[in-house]
Amino acid sequence: xxxxIAIALLGAVTALAVAAAYAATLRARAxxxxxxxxxxxxxESVELVRKMEASSQLATVVAHDVNDLLTAITGxxxxxxxxxxxxxxGIEDAHEIQRAALSAARLNKPLRTLGGGGRASxxxxxxxxxxxxxxxxxxxxxxxxxxxRAGHEVLAxxxxxxxxxxxxxxxxxxxxxVDVVMPVMGxxxxxxxxxxxxxxxxxxxxxxxxxxxxxxxxGDGFLPKPFTIASLTGIVEEALFAARPRSAL
Length: 249
Prior knowledge:
Layout: H1 3-37, H2 42-83, H3 91-115, E1 130-133, H4 137-149, E2 154-157, H5 160-169, E3 175-179, H6 187-197, E4 202-207, E5 221-224, H7 229-243
Parallel strand pairs: 1-2, 1-3, 3-4, 4-5
């Protein structure tokens, strides 16, 4: 596939996804406006509330999925740029793909809002494995590749149950990268269950939405999506440095 076709496909996919999410946004806003203006009987108000909540939930789901797609695109475009000859003919196309994805992420930001939701050391810490819990396969593979190239041992799983099983098998795990929005069990609930197995495990939460200040444990990290390679490796190194046993300091 040529770079120009890749850019065209990226634009088409992004446009469709953002359009769907924007339509959900408009429906949610219309429902809210109708609810505020309504002076009709109670039963009609309840129906408006139901429609408003359904539209908001749809916007949340679409925004989350679009953001995971953009995270994979921006991350792999960074890897592509790093592998290309800076003077070659394809480097500018790769940069254009990255710029388009970052622009789409900015367009997606208002939809995430509707839906709700300094480095400690430059040294790469290689003392323990990093457990990655991410249900989106493209993002999970990106994180595994990036951290592996940075010298980390990575164990990547698709969901909470596999993560808890991994903690039981490998008590040496002291850092988890956890997606906040996942089926069956969300990231914050997973962290609670994980600490029943490994009380000292450090967690970095990943999300397209703002951190939940009421549920975010003090001392844990937060990585906004979409993220760059530098922000991913940086927060992992900071977290591993903080999680090291005192004997390793």
